[in-house]
């Protein structure tokens, strides 16, 4: 099936792009926050991550979606959430089996941790997400997301 391979490549590329963008956004946000906090007169240049006070609201929450066949990606998603929480970030881990397009598009900060199996096929819990992504993927459809 030549079309299936192309579909799988398109899905894998989109998931990789979204995941990379999410990790970059979180890193940049923490970097900017630490840098801004360190510019106060009399403060040492060494940042205290524990001193971060990030609002607990939807604009600052990081949603970590996972797609996993065996549980490995779920474990990675939980580890990311734990480490982000240690930095003072607010997170929510979401199984892609619970995927709702309207809710997903409302999120500002998203990380997707996805496994594949076979020849790059999405795990069972990500089938609906993969179908939605392949139908909706345009160059700017996730432009409001980090």
TrEMBL record:
* Domain of life, per lineage: Eukaryota
Pfam families hit by this protein: Flavodoxin_1
- According to its UniProt entry, this protein's organism is Perkinsus chesapeaki (Clam parasite)
What SUPFAM superfamilies does its record include?
A: Flavoproteins (SSF52218)
List, alphabetically, the GO terms of the cellular component aspect. cytosol
Q: Where is the Flavodoxin-like domain?
A: 62-146
What molecular function terms (GO) are annotated for this protein?
A: flavin adenine dinucleotide binding; FMN binding; oxidoreductase activity
Q: Which Gene3D superfamilies match?
A: 3.40.50.360
- List UniProt keywords, sorted A-Z: Flavoprotein, Membrane, Transmembrane, Transmembrane helix
User: Which InterPro entries does the entry link to?
Assistant: Flavdoxin-like (IPR001094), Flavodoxin/NO_synth (IPR008254), Flavoprotein-like_sf (IPR029039)
Q: Which residues cross the membrane?
A: 12-31
Entry annotated with the keyword Membrane: yes
Q: Does the keyword Isomerase apply?
A: no
Question: What is this protein's record name?
Answer: Flavodoxin-like domain-containing protein
């Amino acid at each position: 099936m030549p079309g299936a391979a192309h579909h799988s490549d398109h899905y894998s590329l989109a998931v990789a792009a979204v995941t990379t963008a999410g990790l970059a956004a979180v890193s940049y946000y923490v970097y900017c926050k630490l840098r801004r906090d360190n510019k106060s007169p009399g403060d040492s240049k060494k940042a205290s991550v524990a001193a971060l006070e990030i609002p607990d609201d939807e604009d600052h929450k990081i949603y970590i979606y996972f797609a996993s066949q065996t549980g490995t990606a779920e474990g990675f998603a939980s580890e990311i959430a734990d480490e982000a929480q240690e930095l003072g970030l607010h997170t929510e881990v979401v199984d892609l089996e619970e995927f709702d397009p309207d809710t997903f598009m409302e999120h500002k900060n998203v990380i997707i941790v996805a496994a594949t199996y076979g020849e790059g096929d999405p795990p069972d819990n990500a089938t609906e997400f993969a179908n939605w992504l392949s139908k909706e993927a345009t160059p700017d459809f996730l432009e409001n997301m980090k």
